[in-house]
Amino acid sequence: MFRPDTQTGLEYRRAVSPKATAQERLSIMAAAIDWVLTMQQEAAAREATDEGKKKAHRRYGDAVLALSKAYALGAASDAAREIREEVGFFQAIRAAMVKSTPNGGRSTADRELAIQQIVSRAVVSTAIVDIMKAAGIQTPDISILSDEFLAEVRDMDKKNLALEALRKLINGEVRSQSKRNIVQARAFSDRLQDAVARYHANAITTVQVLEELIKLAKDIARRAKGGRRAV
User: Fold this and answer.
1) Is the pTM value of this prediction over 0.70?
2) What is the 8-class DSSP label of residue 45?
3) Is 207 left (phi over 0), alpha (psi -120 to 50) or beta?
4) d(Cα 66, Cα 38) in Å, to the nearest integer?
5) Which of 131, 157, 190 is the last residue of a domain?
6) CA distance 231 to 213
7) SS3 for 155?
8) Domain stop point among 71, 98, 131
9) How many Å apart are CA 134 and CA 61, to the nearest integer?
10) How do residues 118-162 score in pLDDT, each as one tens digit?
11) Domains contained in the chain, number
12) Is the domain of 171 the same as that of 224?
């Protein structure tokens, strides 16, 4: 389904077709997120400076934000209406990626972008698509950091998407554990940030950082179980 395209690198247009099912759209969005993450990582690898690498990782988000601002200026025109669904698709991909970032914060621009997303009737229920759902993973709880689940993550074809999904899970669990043991939670958070930083600096590969995050997730799960037994 996802044929390379000379202009986009990914054939996404089925996602904005009124004939597409919700599952088809979700599947294409998962492929699109993984593709963007892969392209950003490859672009960062070609940069020599830390600032250049950071810009490479922001490139898609910055481009969609610029597109959204331009679209808003001419939203009432026929030309804008013709591309409404595609703009909404690009916004949905960016929103899912923004929602997965470790800091969990949302800037004013991000909130405005989320509101703008309603211009697209073709994106799944005109809602921000959570990266976990795009990865085919349901809303997580502590039990999802089981060995079985982590094995499933390791075997996912879309490695960059698996990485983002697991990073979000770990970040959420670390925040939860900080209510019980802030020192331990900070140590886990530092390990997460260090692994992701080394990955963004191209010091380790996608597979290597994924393995590090799986090990971190197992350590977090063991700590959580130990804490519950001690209560």
Assistant:
1) no
2) H
3) alpha
4) 21
5) 131
6) 27
7) coil
8) 131
9) 18
10) 334 334 333 445 666 666 665 555 455 677 778 877 888 888 888
11) 2
12) yes
* Co-location of 116 and 154 in the same domain: no
Structural domain contains residue 153: yes
Placement of tokens 């997965």 in the chain: 100
Give the span between the Cα atoms of 137 and 30, in whole angstroms.
11
Smallest CA-to-CA distance from 138 within 147, 149, 128 is with 149
Whether 83 contacts 117, CB under 8 Å: no
**Structural domain boundaries, residue 162:** 142-230
What span, in angstroms and rounded, lies between the C-alpha atoms of 177 and 109? 30
SS3 readout for 84-115: HHHHHHHHHHHHHHHHCCCCCCCCHHHHHHHH
Residues 51 and 154 in one domain: no
Helix axes 84-99, 108-116, angle to 10 degrees: 140
